[in-house]
Specification:
The protein has about 290 residues and is mostly helical. The chain contains 15 helices and five strands.
């Protein structure tokens, strides 16, 4: 089954939070609940992990713009006026990630400049003259030029885009992604520290699982607790415009925030009831919770 065909229901969401309050002793004495929580956590982990990797890769794509004319790769339009005037070019990260490129070398810029500044009838067959005028204007604008993302980072992003499964990402890949989000210049709607944090928790999600279907042990319980904490944190992660899980492909955004509000105010027996999982409901009706 393709990951994009996966989804979690409200009932499964409530099951997650019902499972999360179980103690080690509860799971040691109830092998059915132990099996259920492991199965449940592994499913959510896999679903979130695949979605988050796709989201991270998509966000990285905003650091590289593909030219509409010939699909050349280049970065956000840093002009010398922007980069030097704003002091960005003096920042340590700038020379590490960016390199200069003349606007004339970028076909789309050349075409846009041509169409914006001159009527076609005036320059038809006079490209050399146009270039001369263009270069004159460049001088008048203090040698304006663009800065593009270096090829090594463009190639890295393209490599990540081709990965199908998140477990193919190495720690070094995650670290590079976090550096790109933290260090590159980003428009306020894209990238930045919030996406570096999302990447950090995605990396933790990958490390914390999948859980083995083994008999109860303290070590297994510790792994369960760590994965629960990671998933719970991911539920609250935000990027520049919304919570990161808003765009889960199963339409979970329609009910997830309301469900989180319910989890925050209802007692555990009500959350168990909302899960509609009979093994969970039966457990929370026991004398321990009366």
């Amino acid at each position: 089954m393709g990951w994009y065909k996966m989804a979690i229901t409200q009932q499964q969401f409530y099951s997650f939070y019902a499972y999360s309050v179980l103690s080690g002793e509860d799971l040691r004495q109830n092998p059915i609940l132990l099996y259920g929580i492991i199965e449940h956590l592994n499913y959510i982990r896999d679903y979130y992990l695949r979605f988050l990797l796709k989201a991270i890769v998509g966000e990285l794509g905003y650091a590289v713009i593909k030219d509409s004319c010939n699909h050349d790769n280049w970065a956000f339009t840093y002009t010398a006026d922007d980069a030097l005037g704003d002091g960005i070019a003096q920042e340590p990260f700038f020379s590490q990630y960016y390199e200069p490129i003349q606007l004339w070398d970028i076909p789309s810029w050349r075409d846009k400049y041509w169409n914006h500044n001159y009527y076609e009838d005036d320059i038809l067959g006079c490209e050399d003259k146009f270039k001369e005028i263009y270069e004159r204007d460049i001088k008048l604008k203090n040698g304006i030029r663009c800065f593009k993302l270096k090829d090594e980072y463009i190639n890295f992003i393209e490599k990540i885009e081709k990965l199908e499964y998140p477990n193919l990402l190495k720690d070094s890949d995650y670290n590079t992604i976090k550096s790109l989000f933290n260090d590159l210049w980003w428009d306020h709607d894209f990238g930045g520290n919030l996406w570096a944090n999302i990447t950090e928790w995605t990396q933790r999600l990958q490390k914390n699982g999948p859980l083995p279907q083994n008999k109860y042990s303290q070590n297994l319980f510790n792994k369960i607790q760590k994965l629960i904490m990671t998933i719970d944190t991911i539920h609250s992660l935000e990027h520049n415009t919304n919570k990161v899980l808003t765009e889960l492909p199963g339409g979970e955004h329609k009910w997830m925030q309301k469900a989180l509000d319910i989890v925050g105010k209802e007692d555990i027996k009500e959350i168990a009831r909302l899960s509609k999982d009979m093994s969970i409901i039966k457990f929370f009706k026991s004398e321990k919770f009366t």
